[in-house]
Design brief:
The complex is a heterodimer of chains A (501) and B (325). Chain A has one domain. In chain A, 77% of the residues lie in helices and 1% in strands. The longest helix of chain A has 36 residues. Chain B has two domains: 194 residues, D-Maltodextrin-Binding Protein, domain 2 (3-Layer(aba) Sandwich), CATH 3.40.190; 116 residues, Periplasmic binding protein-like II (D-Maltodextrin-Binding Protein, domain 2). In chain B, 46% of the residues lie in helices and 19% in strands. The N terminus of chain B is likely disordered. The interface between A and B is large, with 53 and 58 residues. Chain A: Keywords: Membrane, Transmembrane, Transmembrane helix.
């Protein structure tokens, strides 16, 4: 068995004292920055890059990878406890996770987030080891037209995210897409809707929107209603999951792992879609779907598993093609190049220590993260009993620091303030932030792929139905759209929603 | 580029005034950490080389050199922040072809710094040619093949890392020369563009050599032509544009700059240390592997170089239509 021999070799590399130490350092730093709102893995990794120069390449990359998935683990903590998502994937976690925390089930939400992530990480690691090169072909078979259709499908079903009025949520999706249009046009380099403000030329900041619309707006709402603050600190609840909660989570974790593993392979957008795709799925087919909107554990278990599976499989394009799927991966390529290693298809043969060592260390890192995070659950939950008058100023300060650190620019802090106030107004009007964020993330990608597909097809729209992948995805989107617009079906949905929330 | 003689005079006049009270501190320079602003997001070639340089300068100057990424608007956001910083030698910039060559034309009239007068240019760090690569199964092995494809009814798609980059402008120039516009397919960064070429969705790409070099070595793409005056020492088998009958060259570059008014002694010291660092064998080897060559210019030569680049790019930016008006 080649795979086992290779994995054994990988573990031999990953389990040297030095590599274990750096993996642990990476995981601890990653968890810490994940918990601190706004401070993302990109800023941290670029700051720590010089430290790795003195280490062997394998050790360096093991540490950087630890920071990356450590941040994914840590990010769910603030989403669940404080309604503060730092990344696209954690936006979904706030939806049910924060509701669970408010019901006094923060402990269970955090525990399932950690356990689900661990399970998904294990499966995805095996997948990377067993069929990485094969899966590369999947990524390569996706052309611009297919990406467009995938994003379009995501956007159509994002209306399902709505917990209230469908019309309002479609409105928010469209508003999000419009916000995403701000910035430099990729095709022509023209500035769009920037009003002559240079800081807007790269678009409105995602983290600013997410922090403002979720975190800051929530703080304003809580300050307005003294009773809701006390509810938070009053009910800490039991830390452990009940047997019922565990039983309900199992299928959600399995489905989330599958969704995340597949979507993670697609560079750009794949990982972002995964947690959100899993949320949709749980909301439609899980046993607890009637509880969605009030803190259903499936809504945390599924997306958290999907998100972690995707962050592991997103290493596939990097390891097999040498092409980074996102900014963090781009930094890792940089780290490798500084070490004199060219990532790419030959890396498996030329650098077996690095390749298999990294894969083994992914699993080792996941074990460490579980060990770090599970005992911390109690501590995090205790944090909720801190009086709100002490809590909210600290959250605001951390948000400001985190947002500033993204670009070292005060403009981002102003943006956050703006979206905080805007988010508060939206809450008052019962307009939901999640569909807007999905629109903001998917809209520009959709436009980019659409225009690229049209450039390549010389303006022939047929390309979207001629390509089988694209045709299937558009077909599903059409069915979803019809189902949503058919009055009787919609009535059924509304009734189900009223029941749920 | 609109020149404002009044402003330049003012800056020139202010140099001695600014320098005088700092003469004492210039003696002790460097006595505190130095910020090296990279006007791009982390992970690109500029960022990488800046980190290598920062490590080298740190060792030579004995104080920490901290890389700070301030991306945005064709590298102009970070550059503007340095143009406005105190000229005390503690704020430096990775000036580059985008912020100091192309963006002055792209963002004409809206850019809030003068790429020559608002900076004390210190040293050229690295320059590297553009290379045209093709998918090995696309049937394009020479520029003649590419031109034939471009003139056929099918046309030729060429991917780049983005509109308004030097790689894109080379595509525009090639189109002008052969009298048939190439179908430019811009991507968000070199990574996704390269993936599309490897997957065969786009047959060809105009890319910087450092980001393409590993893919060329691995054979996942075929190098068709190097946009340089001579064949590149690391890729002796790749013919130049000129050898294939097109008198085109395109080099992208970046260097080290400081705000205008930085004391001459500091500029001179930084130039000396940077060139000494670039001359080390380790750096030369690493740069050669990437496909770049280390710079060896004096501050005056680098300033003149920046001035020439701005003048050279202006008409091409016009032709490409990539202006942010």
């Amino acid at each position: 068995m080649d795979l086992f021999a290779n994995l054994a070799h990988g573990f031999a590399v990953a389990l040297t004292w030095n590599n274990i130490l750096f993996c642990l350092i990476g995981c601890v730093i990653g968890t810490a920055i994940g918990v601190l709102p706004g401070i993302g893995p990109v800023a941290t990794i670029s700051l720590l890059l010089p430290i790795t120069f003195g280490q062997p390449a394998t050790t360096a990359i093991i540490m950087l990878a630890g920071i990356y998935y450590g941040a994914q683990y840590g990010g769910s903590t603030t989403s669940i406890l404080l309604n503060l998502p730092g990344e696209v994937s954690s936006v979904v976690t706030t939806l049910e996770g924060y509701k669970m925390a408010r019901r006094g089930r923060a402990g269970a939400a955090l525990a399932i987030a950690a356990i689900g992530s661990f399970f998904a990480g294990t499966v995805a690691t095996l997948l990377v080891a067993a069929s990485g090169p094969l899966l590369t072909q999947v990524a390569l078979s996706f052309g611009p037209a297919d990406y467009f259709s995938l994003m379009f499908l995501g956007l159509i079903i994002s209306a399902v995210l709505a917990q209230g009025s469908v019309v309002k949520s479609i409105g928010m999706v469209i508003f999000g897409v419009a916000l995403g249009m701000v910035g430099t046009d990729v095709q022509t380099g023209q500035q769009r809707f920037t009003f002559g403000i240079p800081e807007l030329s790269d678009g409105v900041g995602f983290v600013s929107i997410a922090m403002g619309m979720f975190g800051i707006a929530e703080i304003i709402m809580n300050l307005e209603r003294p009773e809701s603050r006390n509810v938070m600190s009053g009910k800490v609840g039991s830390l452990m999951m009940t047997r019922e909660e565990f039983r309900r989570s199992v299928p959600a974790v399995l489905r989330g792992t599958a969704v995340g593993s597949v979507l993670g392979i697609l560079p750009g957008g794949g990982a972002a879609l995964s947690s959100f795709g899993s949320y949709m799925m749980e909301r439609k087919i899980s046993k607890g779907r009637h509880e969605f909107g009030t803190g259903a554990i499936e809504g945390v278990a599924g997306p958290e598993s999907a998100n972690n599976a995707a962050s592991q499989t997103s290493f596939i394009p990097l390891l097999t093609l040498g092409i980074p799927a996102n900014a963090v991966m781009a930094l890792m390529v940089g780290a490798l190049i500084i070490q004199g290693i060219q990532p790419g298809p030959r890396m498996v043969e030329a650098q077996p220590d690095l390749f298999w060592g990294l894969i083994a260390s992914m699993w080792v890192g996941n074990v460490m993260l579980l060990i770090i995070n599970l005992p911390m659950v109690g501590m995090w939950v205790k944090l909720l009993s801190v009086p709100y008058r002490h809590m909210y100023p600290s959250i605001m300060i951390f948000c400001a620091i985190g947002v500033y650190s993204l670009q070292n620019n005060v403009f981002d802090v102003y943006q956050t303030v703006f979206f905080g106030i805007f988010g508060y107004m939206c809450s008052k009007l019962r307009l939901e932030a999640a569909p807007m964020l999905i629109g903001f993330v998917l809209g520009p990608m959709m436009e980019e792929h659409l225009r690229r597909a049209m450039l390549l097809s010389r303006g022939n729209w047929g390309v979207f139905i001629e390509r089988p992948i694209s045709a299937v995805l558009l077909g599903i989107a059409a069915i979803a759209l019809v189902a949503m617009l058919m009055p009787n079906v919609r009535k059924g949905k509304d009734a189900a929603l009223q029941e749920g929330g | 580029m609109s020149w404002k003689p009044g402003r330049r005079l003012l800056i020139a006049a202010s140099i001695p005034v600014l320098a005088a009270p700092r003469a004492g501190s210039a003696q002790a320079w460097p006595s505190q950490p130095i910020r090296l602003v990279v006007p791009f997001a982390p992970g690109g070639t500029t960022d990488l080389v800046a980190r290598l340089l920062a490590a080298g300068l740190q060792e030579r100057l004995g104080v920490s050199v901290v890389v700070e990424n301030r991306a945005g608007a064709g590298a102009t956001v970070g550059s503007e922040s340095v143009a406005r910083a105190a000229p005390d030698g503690y704020t430096l910039l990775m000036s580059n072809i985008a912020s100091h060559g192309i963006s002055p034309s792209v963002y004409r009239g809206r850019i809030r710094y003068d790429a020559v007068a608002d900076f004390a240019h210190i040293a050229l760090v690295i320059s590297n040619p553009t290379v045209w690569v093709a998918n090995p199964r696309a049937g394009i092995r020479t520029l003649a093949d590419a031109v034939a494809r471009a003139r056929s009814p099918q046309g030729l798609d060429v991917a780049t890392s983005g509109a308004g980059s030097s790689n894109h402008l080379l595509v525009v120039r090639m189109g002008q020369i052969i009298g048939k516009e190439l179908n430019h397919i811009p991507f968000r960064g070199a990574g996704p563009a390269m993936q599309a070429v490897i997957a065969g969705q786009v047959p060809m790409m105009s890319d910087s050599l450092p980001s393409a070099s590993s893919h060329i070595r691995q054979g996942s793409v075929l190098a068709v032509a190097m946009a340089a005056a001579q064949r590149h020492p690391s890729f002796p088998d790749v013919p130049t544009f000129r050898e294939q009958g097109f008198d085109l060259a395109s080099e992208s570059w970046f260097g080290l700059s400081a705000p205008a008014g930085t004391p001459a002694a500091i500029v001179e010291r930084l130039n000396r240390e940077t060139r000494a660092f670039l001359a080390t064998d380790a750096v030369r080897a690493r740069f050669a592997e990437l496909g770049g060559s280390a710079g060896a210019m004096s501050p005056e030569e680098y300033t003149e170089f920046v001035r020439r680049e701005i003048a050279a790019w202006a008409p091409l930016v016009q032709a490409s239509g990539a202006t942010a008006d």
